[in-house]
UniProtKB/TrEMBL annotation:
Keywords: Signal. The keyword ATP-binding does not apply. This is Chlorophyllase. Gene3D superfamilies: alpha/beta hydrolase (3.40.50.1820). Residues 1-18 form the signal peptide. InterPro entries: AB_hydrolase_fold, Chlorophyllase-like. The keyword Signal applies. SUPFAM superfamilies: alpha/beta-Hydrolases. Pfam families: Chlorophyllase.
C-alpha cells in the first residue's frame, strides 16, 4: 500500500471555515488498555481513509476536566479529528483531590504508551489510518489544562509540537493555586518551547465558587506563557460549555453558562483548536488566519483575540487584527 501524508499543506483561495466539519469522516474507537500500572479507558477519534491508500495523521492527547468523563467532549474531539488528527482522550482515575501531581504523572505515561502501541492497536480497527507520532499535540480542559501544561513543564515527553488550554485552571480561588503550581504570576515566565493556544470563557470567573477563578485561569495563563501564544475568549459562555449537551447536561449545574444549546461553543472551540493545530503541525495557516482575523464571524461572540509573538517564520502566519 502507498502511504500518504495529507495535512492540507496548501491553502486554496476561499478556504472553508474551520467551524464547519473537516473533510474526514470520523470513527470512534473506545478501548480499555493497560498503561503503566493501570487499566485506562481511551476514547479515540480517528479520521477514516477510503480505498487502499494509507494515510498518516498527527496525534492529539486530550485531557478532561476534574471528575468529568472523557466522552463528554465527543463533539469537540470529533470536530478536531475531522481535520486530520487522531485524538486520544484518556480517562484519568476518579481521585477527588485538589493535588494534580499524580494525574500529571499518569498523563505523562500516555504518550509513551502511544509511541509503543497506538499503531498496532489501531491496525485492528482502522488499518488504513496510521499515527504520525513525530507530531504530538497536548490539549486539556479545566484541570486537564493544568495537566497538559504540567506535562509540558516536565520536559520528558518526546515530539510535543504544541499545547492548548481550554479554560485551564490552576487553583480554587483568586490567586490560590492547587499543587503542583503551574503559574508563576510573572509575565512570559512559563516557557515551554512550543507555540501555545488559550481558549477562555467569559463567564468562567462567575459563580459561587467560580469554576475558573480570576488570577488562576485563562488570562493568567496567557500572561505567564512566553511567546508565541494566542488567546480567544468566548464572552457569553461558561467554563463547562465546552462539554456535550444532553448526556452531559448535569455539568451545567456547577458553572454559570449559556441557557441554550452549547453547540455554538463546541463548534467554535473545536474549530479554533483544529485551525491552530493545522498551522502548527499541518503547515497550513489558512484556517487560523481566518479565525483570528475574522473573529467576528465565529459562531459565538468573542473578545478581540490576543497574541504575544508570532509563529516561526516557516509557518508563514499572518494575523494582524482587524481595524476597529
Amino acid at each position: 500500500m502507498m502511504i500518504s501524508f495529507n495535512f492540507f499543506f496548501t491553502c486554496l483561495d476561499g478556504c472553508t471555515s474551520a467551524y464547519d466539519n473537516g473533510p474526514y469522516t470520523v470513527q470512534n474507537v473506545p478501548l480499555t488498555v493497560p498503561i503503566a500500572q493501570s487499566l485506562r479507558f481511551l476514547w479515540i477519534a480517528v479520521p477514516t481513509v477510503e480505498g487502499d491508500v494509507e494515510e498518516k495523521f498527527p496525534v492529539v492527547q486530550f485531557q478532561h476536566g476534574f471528575l468529568i468523563m472523557n466522552t463528554c467532549y465527543s463533539q469537540i474531539i470529533s470536530h478536531i479529528a475531522s481535520y486530520g488528527f487522531i485524538v486520544v482522550a484518556p480517562q484519568m482515575d476518579p481521585i477527588i483531590s485538589v493535588d494534580a501531581t499524580k494525574e500529571i504523572s499518569d498523563a505523562i505515561d500516555v504518550p509513551f504508551w502511544l509511541q509503543a502501541n497506538l499503531e498496532s492497536t489501531l491496525s485492528l480497527e482502522v488499518p488504513e489510518t496510521k499515527p504520525d507520532l513525530s507530531k504530538l499535540a497536548l490539549v486539556g480542559h479545566s484541570r486537564g489544562g493544568k495537566v497538559v501544561f504540567g506535562m509540558g513543564k516536565n520536559g520528558t515527553i518526546p515530539n510535543v509540537s504544541t499545547i492548548v488550554g481550554l479554560d485551564p485552571v490552576d487553583g480554587d480561588a483568586n490567586g490560590n493555586q492547587t499543587p503542583p503550581g503551574i503559574l508563576t504570576f510573572s509575565e512570559n515566565s512559563l516557557n515551554l518551547g512550543v507555540p501555545t493556544l488559550i481558549v477562555g470563557s467569559g463567564l468562567g470567573p462567575f459563580g459561587f465558587p467560580p469554576c475558573a477563578p480570576e488570577n488562576v485561569s485563562h488570562e493568567q495563563f496567557f500572561f505567564d506563557l512566553s511567546e508565541p501564544v494566542f488567546q480567544f475568549v468566548a464572552k457569553d459562555y461558561g467554563h463547562n460549555d465546552f462539554l456535550d449537551d444532553v448526556v452531559c447536561e448535569l455539568t451545567r449545574l456547577p458553572c454559570p453558562g449559556t441557557l441554550g444549546s452549547r453547540m455554538p461553543m463546541q463548534l467554535f472551540s473545536g474549530g479554533v483548536v483544529a485551525a491552530f493545530l493545522q498551522a502548527i503541525v499541518g503547515n497550513n495557516t489558512c484556517f487560523f488566519n481566518d479565525v483570528f482575523i475574522n473573529y467576528e464571524s465565529a459562531p459565538v461572540s468573542l473578545e478581540v483575540p490576543q497574541q504575544k509573538g508570532e509563529l516561526p517564520q516557516n509557518h508563514n502566519l499572518q494575523v494582524p487584527l482587524k481595524d476597529e
